[in-house]
Amino acid sequence: MTDAVEQGKFEKLKKSSWWWPAGVVATSLAGAAVVTFRGCWHGKMSWPIGVQGCSYQVCLSCGAMRLFDEKIFSAFGPFRYDLNELIIWEKSRKPESHPVADAQSAPPS
Fold this sequence. Notes:
Layout (H helix, E strand, L loop, with lengths): L1 H37 L10 E3 L2 E5 L6 E5 L4 E7 L2 H11 L5 H6 L5
Antiparallel strand pairs: 1-2, 2-3, 3-4
């Protein structure tokens, strides 16, 4: 009687052990397909880092960077892998200060 019970347990283990690696492989392949077609979700970002007068965050999964505004404590702009591209992007969207307008606001002496 115990042999029949043990044999039933062995068959169940045998079936589950076959599905376990296949399930992991299928899940891994599905995850890889999502990452391939979608890319990284950038869910885990680092604390802000300041360099060259700019602050940015780095995705801890893929290494992509994004600019960070310390005044409102929020990330903004596109994700890029090159910090210089981000700095150029930020400088291109900032309006140039006009020295003539600054001189007009100075009080006369």
